[in-house]
Amino acid sequence: MPAPQASRASKAPQSQKSPSSSSAAPAAPPTVKPTDFASDQDVRWCPGCGDYAILNQMRKVLAAMGARREKTVFVSGIGCSSRFPYYMNTYGFHSIHGRAPAVATGVKLANPELDVWIVTGDGDGLSIGGNHLLHFLRRNVGAKVLLFNNRIYGLTKGQYSPTSEEGKKTKSSPMGSLELPLTPLSFALSAEASFAARAVDVDRNLGDVLQQAAEHRGSAFVEIYQDCNVFNHKAFDYATDKNARLENVLYLEHGKPLIFGAESEKGIRLNGARKPEVVSLKDGYKEDDLLFHDQTDESLAFLLSRLSHEQGFPEPMGVFYRMADDCYEQLLEKEIEQAITTRGRGDLQSLFSEANTYEIR
Q1: Does the 35-235+324-353 domain belong in CATH 3.40.50.970?
Q2: Of all helices (H) and strands (E), which one includes residue 321?
Q3: pLDDT digits (tens, 9 = 90+) for 49-107
Q4: Interatomic CA distance for residues 35 and 33, integer angstroms
Q5: Separation of alpha carbons 49 and 223, rounded Å
Q6: What is residue 273's DSSP assignment?
Q7: pLDDT at site 6
């Protein structure tokens, strides 16, 4: 397995030396371009859909990291976002509704050297697939989850989803949804995710977040705010509009104070026991009075995941939490090796024939 947090550039194919040129310097790996990751399939999302921006960023990040197409796999469930594997010139599975984490786990266990990505949506991943996603994250399988959150069911034409806001009027909730929305990052952190992050489809930090997720050792969960311009257009205008974004988005930097605003004049501090509040640096508050981001603090990450635009807070973007831990596939491999050492290699035919057997005549 690669070293923790290693770049995929280290996985570039090694040049083969001929017997007559053993002292020659190895050839440099070929340059990888974003277009190398574009398949020959026509991209069939609605014009203006935020999925296009995510697709383009993903191709750019993989190219910049020198990823190998033959060692990259995209697994999806069902939904608009789940067409993603068709548009990547890599291996891929368009799997079953909500079961992408299960399929991806199988792929990673069968070949731990593969770079596995899961593409899902707020409906696919958090409704029918909620249980699969929960257990995938707690196991720390070494694959990455991209959850496209548009707060609506897009493929099935506009019903409310697990992340739709309370009171949302849709075809399936004509008088307004009665349910509180699920917060994907809070869900992921509660499920013991070892990496949790958030970005916006058209924002500047998406590529950086994707790269950090790719380099993380273990399961990485990335929520991406994605505009569905047909059934839930402008749901995230507060985080994308150039005139509003600086007042409504807080970009997280490890070790830096939580500062935002058009003039970087606002910050977040704790008023009492874990009760956050927005303050102005123009009112006499200093940077040392503010909360400082710590990517290793799980409690702080959960607190940040609860901040919302609807409650008057800026919404954090970037890496909320990361923790280095053993991956599930590594632990399983050690367990198998230990079993072989202590009990020897098994024999399938002997297993079938041992103990009580029945003969049908």
Answers
A1: yes
A2: strand 315-322
A3: 999 999 999 999 999 999 999 999 999 999 999 999 999 999 999 999 999 999 999 99
A4: 5
A5: 16
A6: S
A7: 35
